[in-house]
Design a protein that fits this description.
The complex is a heterodimer.
Chain A: E1 2-4, E2 13-21, H1 25-33, E3 41-44, H2 53-56, E4 61-63, H3 71-74, E5 89-90, H4 113-126, H5 136-142, E6 156-163, H6 169-172, H7 174-179, E7 183-187, E8 190-196, E9 203-209, E10 215-225, H8 229-239, E11 255-265, E12 285-291, H9 293-299, E13 304-310, H10 315-320, H11 326-335, H12 337-342, E14 349-357, E15 365-372, E16 378-383, H13 388-408, E17 411-415, H14 417-420, E18 463-465, H15 480-498
Parallel strand pairs in A: 1-7, 2-3, 2-10, 3-7, 4-16, 10-18
Antiparallel strand pairs in A: 5-6, 6-12, 8-9, 9-10, 11-14, 11-17, 12-13, 13-14, 15-16
Helix pairs in contact in A: 1-15, 4-15
Chain B: H1 4-17, H2 24-32, H3 46-59, E1 62-65, E2 68-71, H4 72-84
Antiparallel strand pairs in B: 1-2
Helix pairs in contact in B: 1-4, 2-4
Classes of the chains: A alpha/beta, B mainly alpha.
């Protein structure tokens, strides 16, 4: 059932068994799991059924750290959430992503990869993906034209991705949610405050406010925050809850996605490069190059992958001199007119694009701004920060990659200047993957985490958090598949709890 | 694979980085050290040099020159080329 909360009288009280705040990938995943149960589920979505500038503006915030995308553009604020514009890239986290790595401060999940495996299996069809197969060998069996490069897999291996159509949760699951008798979806229902009980050991209710200043109260046995990493933190901070150890909003993480080098193959592979090609809307699976866990341990580096994007030889100068002003680039090109002619033909030249893990860092954080939005909520302030470990990882990754391509005789790798430079700063090409993670991290101890291994907020018996905000580390791949898997796990845990 | 202009630039950078090898004789000796080249003439030594290059990569005897990850033997070859060309 769907109700536009703007049609409800001021002071309405909504009551249910489970209240999910946020109807994006995580919230809709959980709501679907309860369809047909004898529990009444309230699904609150701050936006409407489609894009509305006034709703989107509620996500606007300040950027005070490294340059970042406008926050009001980085997440969608309507039914379906950011799946309304995601690209559909899915891959599993590796076993090492869950481990405590002594060279990565604050690393380590309280669960292991095998704990998540059964939920990855269940997440696949929700994201309209293919079979739960993430090895190059399995995909080669399905399509013999998918041949991994002949690199030593103990050094560089081909990590598989699958591509969702991409699933737009707001349209794909709309009928299921609207038609569910025990699920009530309320749109334009922005939660402005979480109200605790007198002893601050549980949530007593939620206050929902509209742009017309009308207020609604919500009461449930259990509450789930599923409104994305930045907004989950914002709501807890604004409500002054779950933050006894000053952890809420800290450890904001992204994936660092930017060009890092070039690859020149000695010869065009006889098997072709289909394994690494991407044709949007057509490609079901492809590989990217990753470093084996043993190499990551040896190099004391973070995880990540690189994609190989075919390029034309005359793009080399553009890429190499990308940090230079245009007139300087023109002069450089003129003085090096012979260079382009020396380069290998198209088909053997590739831009190498990185997607690397960010080290969990308490100083990389979301906090509240002094500015307020149209609902009177404090806006957020994002202070995105990186450490020397990310820079070290870039350099180590490309050196290992270059050595392995050289050893195998397949080609040579060129590393971009900014990676080899002693300058500790980041170039203007620094970019994230639009992935927000880690602001309400998971840990057994409330001293080091906002939620426990079951995603329940430490100290608040009936409040859980779904989404990538609970990730203690971000791995090297896009978060959607993992956050959907974790949401399924959370839903199972809640069913046991409320049984 | 890279073309003469880039090879020359890399060679010049290597000679700046390792001034002790900034002459033809020392570079030839270093390239041929350890058995590379076999018993034939220079032109017939390519297979053996290729093996040495691979061995360099496998052992981590690599350098970053103009951003390229190259084996020590390749870097010396570039340096020799930059002196001859």
């Amino acid at each position: 059932m769907h109700i536009d909360a703007r049609t409800l009288p001021n002071g309405t009280l909504l009551e249910g068994d489970v209240c999910i705040v946020g109807a994006g990938a995580a919230g809709i995943t959980i709501a679907r799991e309860w369809i047909g149960s004898h529990r009444k589920v309230l699904l609150l979505e701050g936006g409407g059924l489609q894009y509305e500038p006034a709703m989107q503006d509620l996500y606007r915030g300040e950027i005070v750290g490294l340059p970042y995308f406008p926050l009001e553009a980085a997440r969608l604020h309507f039914f379906g959430g950011t799946t309304g514009h995601w690209a559909g890239w899915c891959a599993t986290f590796d076993a090492i992503d869950f481990e405590k790595r002594d060279w990565v401060p604050h690393s380590g999940w309280p669960i292991r990869r095998e704990h998540l495996d059964p939920f990855y299996v269940r997440a696949q069809p929700l994201l309209q993906l293919g079979p739960y197969e993430y090895t190059a060998a399995a995909w080669h069996r399905r399509d013999p034209a998918l041949v991994p490069l002949a690199l030593d897999p103990r050094v560089v291996w081909t990590k598989m991705w699958q591509f969702s159509p991409p699933t737009r949760f707001g349209t794909t699951y709309r009928d299921a949610i609207f038609g569910a008798r025990n699920v009530e979806l309320y749109t334009h229902a922005n939660v402005c405050e979480i109200e605790p009980n007198d002893t601050v050991t549980a949530v007593q209710g939620l206050r929902v406010r509209g742009l017309d200043a009308k207020e609604i109260r919500v009461r449930a046995r259990h509450y789930v925050l599923a409104c994305c990493s930045i907004q989950n933190a914002r709501l807890l901070l604004a409500s002054r809850l779950g933050n006894a150890n000053d952890l809420v909003g800290r450890f904001f993480m992204e994936h660092i996605e930017m060009p890092g080098g070039h690859l020149v193959l000695a010869a065009s592979p006889t098997a072709g490069m289909k394994m690494y090609e991407m044709n949007y809307g057509v490609t079901k699976a492809r590989g990217e190059l990753a470093l084996h866990a043993a190499i990551q341990r040896e190099q004391r580096m973070l995880n990540g992958t690189v994609s190989l994007e075919p390029g034309a030889p005359d793009e080399v100068a553009k890429s190499t001199f990308q940090a230079m002003p245009p007139d300087a680039v023109a002069k450089m090109r003129e003085s090096r007119a012979s260079v382009a002619a020396d380069l290998p033909p198209a088909g053997r030249f590739f831009h190498v694009i990185s997607r690397l893990e960010q080290s969990p860092n308490p100083h990389s954080r979301v906090s509240l701004s002094t500015e307020r939005d149209a609902l009177g909520m404090p806006r957020v302030k994002l202070d995105w920060r990186l450490t020397d470990l990310e820079k070290h990882t870039f350099r180590a990754f490309y050196e290992v990659l270059g050595r392995e391509f050289g050893r195998s005789g397949l080609g040579r790798v060129q590393v971009l200047d900014w990676i080899t430079s002693a300058d500790p700063g980041w170039p203007s090409t620094l970019g994230g993957g639009w992935h927000h993670m880690g602001t309400t991290r998971m840990h057994e101890s409330p001293r080091w985490g906002v939620v426990d291994p079951n995603c329940q907020v430490h100290g608040l018996a009936n409040l859980s958090i779904a989404g990538a905000s609970v990730f203690p580390t971000g791995g090297g791949v896009n978060p959607t598949l993992t956050l959907v898997a974790l949401s399924l796990r959370l839903s199972d845990s809640l069913k046991r709890k409320l049984a | 694979m890279l073309g003469p202009e880039r090879v020359r630039e890399i060679g010049v950078q290597y000679r700046r980085l390792v001034p002790a090898e900034n002459d033809r004789i020392r570079l030839r000796a270093a390239i041929l050290a350890g058995g590379a080249g076999g018993a034939g003439g220079w032109g017939g030594r390519a297979p053996s040099l290729a093996a040495k290059v691979r061995s360099d990569f496998a052992a981590g005897r690599t350098l970053l020159l103009n951003g390229w990850v190259l084996s020590a033997t390749e870097a010396r070859q570039c340096a020799l080329f930059s002196l001859l060309a």
